[in-house]
């Protein structure tokens, strides 16, 4: 039975090229990516699960699809290009293959394709963040109502206060999540700019 290794490594979705590089480095060190365990409640990030393997230079690449009509055809397309499906990392499908000096080591043919994929991820993250902010605004508009029950401390007032306190904790958690999400959005916009204008990006580094 293969030895399992768990590594608690923090990477943002918006920094997915760094995560690709990290998984490639681990494979070169003899650790093959198995899966990514998402963060549980009150955890800031998840962790990577590896199994020991023969050390080999292996390229890992991510792809994002918001909807796949035919999964068999989707994975077969990559298989025909010598890419093996390795599992999922958060929003991404993870593919890998041994590094080759004579073949393309990227799943995308050009920077435009890379940029389009990043735009899809950006759209999903932006939608989530906007919904969270909308939810926060609605909550804040009605928050003051819990103090309009006069001076009498009755059961209804106390129970309402308690429920609002719990809900407030929940909203703070959402707010923190949205802040991290905003960082992902900024990272993705930077990557898109890099792919669209690689020469300008190099000059401004």
**Approximate strand percentage:** 15-25%
Low confidence ranges: 201-205
Task: State the domain count.
Answer: 2
Distance between the amino and carboxyl termini: 46 Å
Widest sheet: strand order? 1-3-2
What profile does the largest beta sheet have? 3 strands, antiparallel
Helix content: 40-55%
Average pLDDT, rounded to a whole number, is: 81
Shape: globular
Radius of gyration: 22 Å
Q: What is the H-and-E element order?
A: EHEEEHEEHHH
- Helical stretch tally: 5
Give a count of the beta strands, DSSP E runs of length 2 or more: 6
Look at the helices and sheets and give the structural class: alpha+beta
Structure in words:
The chain contains 5 helices and 6 strands, in the order βαβββαββααα. It folds into 2 domains: 4-98, no CATH class; 111-204. The chain is of the alpha+beta class and 205 residues long. Mean pLDDT is 81; it is low at 201-205. 51% of the residues lie in helices and 18% in strands. A 3-stranded antiparallel sheet has the order 1-3-2. It has a 3-stranded antiparallel sheet with strand order 4-6-5.
């Amino acid at each position: 039975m293969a030895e399992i290794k768990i590594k608690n490594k923090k990477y943002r979705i918006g920094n997915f090229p760094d995560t690709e590089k990290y998984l490639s480095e681990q494979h070169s060190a003899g650790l093959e990516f198995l899966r990514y365990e998402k963060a549980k409640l009150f955890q800031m990030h998840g962790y990577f699960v590896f199994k020991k393997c023969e050390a080999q230079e292996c390229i890992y690449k991510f792809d994002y699809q918001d909807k796949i009509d035919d999964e068999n055809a989707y994975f077969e397309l990559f298989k025909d290009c010598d890419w093996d499906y390795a599992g999922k990392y958060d929003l991404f499908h993870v593919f890998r293959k041994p590094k080759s000096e004579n073949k393309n080591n990227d799943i995308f043919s050009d920077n435009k394709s890379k940029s389009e994929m990043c735009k899809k991820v950006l759209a999903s993250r932006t939608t989530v963040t906007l919904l969270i902010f909308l939810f926060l605004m609605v909550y804040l508009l009605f928050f003051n109502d819990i103090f309009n029950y006069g001076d009498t401390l009755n059961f209804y007032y106390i129970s309402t206060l308690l429920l609002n306190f719990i809900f407030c904790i929940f909203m703070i958690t959402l707010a923190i999540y949205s802040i991290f999400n905003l960082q992902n959005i900024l990272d993705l916009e930077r990557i898109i700019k890099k792919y669209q204008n690689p020469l300008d990006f190099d000059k401004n580094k």
